[in-house]
């Protein structure tokens, strides 16, 4: 998209990211989630991207590690959350740019799976499928159809298992 730049966040972006999340979600839950995930990450690298439109931060997306436990294997996946765009800038393709960039970077870094608890109609256009296709359940209190999976390596997941999100996600999703 014209005039949209997606790049990794810097320390100077933190305040603007909070503003984006608060305005997009009309509350502080996701901004607190982002802060908690940064603190939790320690040596585990999270991927936090910002989208700029005409030089102003108008979008944010975070990928952080989440565990997929299956009977014969554990897979370290990435949780896509939150993804936000300032409401006044929606419908410019900013969210699409963020999601596509995050998928490309996750592949480049060798990750095999991305999960999202979100709107199925939105995320399925990027190749996400229902987690129930793999008989996966989660510790998040979300409707079954809202948990979606994108295999970056086809066939890496097997039938059956649990997606275990870290505590900050549970605190955020329980605040609604």
What is the secondary structure topology, with strand pairs?
Elements: E1 4-8, H1 14-25, H2 29-41, E2 47-53, E3 56-70, E4 73-85, H3 94-108, E5 113-117, H4 120-123, E6 129-130, E7 136-138, E8 147-151, E9 161-164, H5 167-173
Parallel strand pairs: 4-5, 7-9
Antiparallel strand pairs: 1-2, 2-3, 3-4, 3-9, 5-8, 6-8
Helix pairs in contact: 1-2, 2-5
Explain what the structure shows.
The chain is of the alpha+beta class and 176 residues long. It has a single domain, classed as Gcn5-related N-acetyltransferase (GNAT) (Aminopeptidase, 3-Layer(aba) Sandwich). It has five helices and nine strands, in the order βααβββαβαββββα. It has helices at residues 14-25, 29-41, 94-108, 120-123, 167-173, and strands at 4-8, 47-53, 56-70, 73-85, 113-117, 129-130, 136-138, 147-151, 161-164. Strands 1, 2, 3, 4, 5, 6, 7, 8 and 9 form a nine-stranded mixed β-sheet that branches. Strand 3 and strand 4 (73-85) form a beta hairpin. Helix 1 (14-25) crosses helix 2 (29-41) and helix 2 (29-41) packs antiparallel against helix 5. The chain is globular and about 45 Å long.
């Amino acid at each position: 998209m014209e005039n949209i730049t997606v790049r990794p966040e810097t320390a100077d972006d933190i305040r603007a990211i909070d503003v984006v999340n608060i305005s997009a979600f009309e509350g502080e839950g996701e901004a607190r989630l982002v802060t908690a995930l940064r603190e939790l990450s320690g040596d585990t690298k999270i991927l936090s991207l910002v989208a700029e439109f005409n030089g102003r931060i108008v979008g944010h997306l975070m990928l952080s590690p989440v565990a997929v436990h299956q009977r014969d294997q554990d897979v370290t996946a990435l949780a896509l959350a939150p993804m936000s765009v300032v409401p006044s800038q929606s419908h410019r393709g900013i969210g699409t740019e963020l999601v596509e960039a995050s998928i490309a970077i996750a592949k480049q870094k060798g990750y095999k799976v991305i999960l999202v608890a979100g709107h199925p109609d939105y995320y399925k256009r990027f190749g996400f499928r229902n987690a129930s296709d793999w008989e996966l359940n989660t510790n998040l209190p979300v409707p079954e159809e809202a948990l979606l999976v994108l295999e970056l390596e086809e066939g890496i997941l097997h039938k059956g298992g649990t997606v275990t999100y870290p505590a900050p996600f549970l605190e955020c999703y329980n605040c609604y």
